[in-house]
Specification:
Blueprint (H helix, E strand, L loop, with lengths): L2 E6 L4 E11 H13 L8 E5 L2 E6 L5 H15 L3 E5 L3 H17 L4 E5 L2 H10 L3
Helix pairs in contact: 1-2
Length: about 130
C-alpha cells in the first residue's frame, strides 16, 4: 500500500507514511480510509512523513480531486492541523505545493511544512486551536 498510517489515540494524531510512487488515486484512497476509520477521533492532527516517497505521480489539474477527498475528511473528522515533514529538497517542495493546494481549496486549514520531527513538534505545540 503506497500510503500507510498509524493512529495515536492519546495524542489524537494520525502519522502518515506515503512510500514509493504516490498517485492521486493513492491519496484519495488514503483520505477515504481516514474518513471511514472509526478509531480516529474528531479534531485529529495529521503528520505526514515524506521520507519514503520516490515520486509523486499526478498533475496540477488533479489537485481538485485531492482537495475534495481532503474536505470529506475535514467534514467527517474535523482534522485540525496538517504537518508535512520533508527532509530532502524535493520532499519539502512537494509539501509546499500541497500547502498551496490546501490554502486554495481549503482556506483556513492549519498547515505547516517542516524539515524534521523537532520542527513538527514545535509547529504542533504552537498551532492555534
Amino acid at each position: 500500500m503506497p500510503i500507510e498510517y498509524d493512529y495515536d489515540k492519546k495524542l489524537n494524531t494520525v502519522y502518515t507514511y506515503p512510500s514509493g510512487n504516490v498517485s492521486t488515486t493513492d491519496i484519495v484512497t488514503y483520505f477515504k480510509n481516514i474518513a471511514g476509520d472509526d478509531r480516529i477521533s474528531n479534531g485529529f492532527i495529521e503528520v505526514v512523513y515524506f521520507g519514503r516517497v520516490k515520486d509523486f505521480i499526478f498533475s496540477s489539474d488533479q489537485a481538485a480531486n485531492i482537495a475534495m477527498a481532503f474536505n470529506e475528511v475535514r467534514e467527517k473528522k474535523g482534522v485540525s492541523s496538517t504537518v508535512f515533514i520533508g527532509t530532502s529538497e524535493m520532499q519539502y517542495g512537494i509539501g509546499r505545493m500541497f500547502q498551496a493546494f490546501i490554502d486554495f481549496y481549503c482556506p483556513g486549514h492549519d498547515v505547516h511544512v517542516v524539515r524534521n520531527e523537532e520542527e513538527a513538534r514545535k509547529a504542533i505545540e504552537e498551532r492555534d486551536d
